[in-house]
Amino acid sequence: MTDQENNNNISSNPFAALFGSLADAKQFAAIQKEQLKQQSGKGVTFNSIHFLADELPASPDDSDNSVSESLDEFDYSVAEISRSFRSQQEICEQLNINHMIQRIFLITLDNSDPSLKSGNGIPSRCVYLEEMAVELEDQDWLDMSNVEQALFARLLLQDPGNHLINMTSSTTLNLSADRDAGERHIFCYLYSCFQRAKEEITKVPENLLPFAVQCRNLTVSNTRTVLLTPEIYVDQNIHEQLVDLMLEAIQGAHFEDVTEFLEEVIEALILDEEVRTFPEVMIPVFDVLLGRIKDLELCQILLYAYLDILLYFTRQKDMAKVFVEYIQPKDPTNGQMYQKTLLGVILNISCLLKTPGVVENHGYFLNPSRSSPQEIKVQEANIHQFMAQFHEKIYQMLKNLLQLSPETKHCILSWLGNCLHANAGRTKIWANQMPEIFFQMYASDAFFLNLGAALLKLCQPFCKPRSSRLLTFNPTYCALKELNDEERKIKNVHMRGLDKETCLIPAEPKFPQNYNLVTENLALTEYTLYLGFHRIFCR
After folding, report:
1. How far apart are CA 388 and CA 390, in angstroms?
2. Between helices 186-203 and 147-156, what is the axis angle to 10°?
3. How far apart are CA 19 and CA 74, in angstroms?
4. Domain segments of the chain: what residues?
5. Strand pairing of 125-128 and 164-166?
6. Dist. CA 188–CA 186, nearest whole Å
7. Rounded to whole angstroms, how far apart are CA atoms 281 and 268?
8. Sign of the torsion angle spanned by Cα atoms 486, 489, 490, 492
9. Closest CA to 331 of 437, 440, 222
10. pLDDT band at 23, cuts 50/70/90?
11. What are the residue boundaries of the Ubiquitin conjugation factor E4 core domain, all occurrences included (predicted)?
12. Percentage of the chain lying above the pLDDT 70 cut
């Protein structure tokens, strides 16, 4: 082999990246070659082990010492080769681990000339952790002992885009590589790392699999830390980033990937509540959703993306518990306070005027006298289409909470029962005569019309003609006196004050030990429609 060919082989060897320069790599190769020549002169190779045996004395009169010395020398040489082989294996594995960490987290400690690196198996752009590289001095590679420190250092960078370096000699502009490596939002960055780690798990050889899994777990544990202590990350609104990530996933049709990541993060948060409880961590997420949803209109597509996020939360057992606690009003006796909760804000969205008689900033039928009948029909059809979709989302949310667990079922039924009781004054005569006072005390017409539509959907399964389930309705539910909270939970009774309504046939019925959901659903729905339509019919 010529010197030129030898140089080319060394420069293309991926292990050359472990040396400070190409010259150092060549020097090391020359030394190793010389040592191998010396060893092969002694007959120490795995392919010619028999050579030493041929030189052993054949005559029994030969010295036993010479035989012993030859065998000792042979054993020593084989051990040296074995150690050298193991060392090269370790170097190879370490190099692969370093490249894998770089691919997952897009970080590096090596800022050497890209032309000296082999472009095989490394990303095109990485964030260079300069301070950590200085701290570690001679070590310019990442391994499982320092990757956690490196990831934490990356998360603390305020503008990682300013620390990007080229890892390969390619001069092609790669905007996606710049975007991924320089991602400023740390929640989104950790999710992307989680996805890259998942991909590595499916591709790496078996000896690297435990390290890939460890990197995947590291993204989850760091996400947990980010949510537990968001204050240590400067200029990062973690909870808005979480909502934005879910919103992007819904719109981009990869929501299942995000929920898989969130499920693992939620599990990690539940297991460690020493710093903050799980509700304390997640309540700010619902604050973000409340702030965004309250300004949306019925016919805005964005509204339905946010409702899909809430549908996921009402299906996830831990998030659903936080949700039903979050929607509890500050003053349960004030009917209008229910409209200010997250669920109430959703129920208040409608095509109706927010304030009767005030048409400013209203997006529907602004100039009906100037619109053609066809234009009005098109707008009506558009509104009906959105309302059907809107009511379906609300129905699914209520259904999820009723079916998820006894705890969430009790909480949402209590919310509905207390809400109806607090808004019972909507049926009073003065409600239409004093609108200023009315709107300070009670929820809006839109609130009750939407709630009534969703509850009607819950009643559909047992309201079909000749439904046997309808016969399980127990009318004595309406005659029950006041119960304490524990009795309500045991008896499945969550409405209040029905016994004070006018009874056509006064009686003292025999009450059962508890009531089924059919009875509660029908009672809640009937009373909701009564409160909602009474004020409209009596105007």
Report:
1. 5
2. 150
3. 32
4. 83-221
5. antiparallel
6. 5
7. 12
8. positive
9. 440
10. low
11. 343-537
12. 79
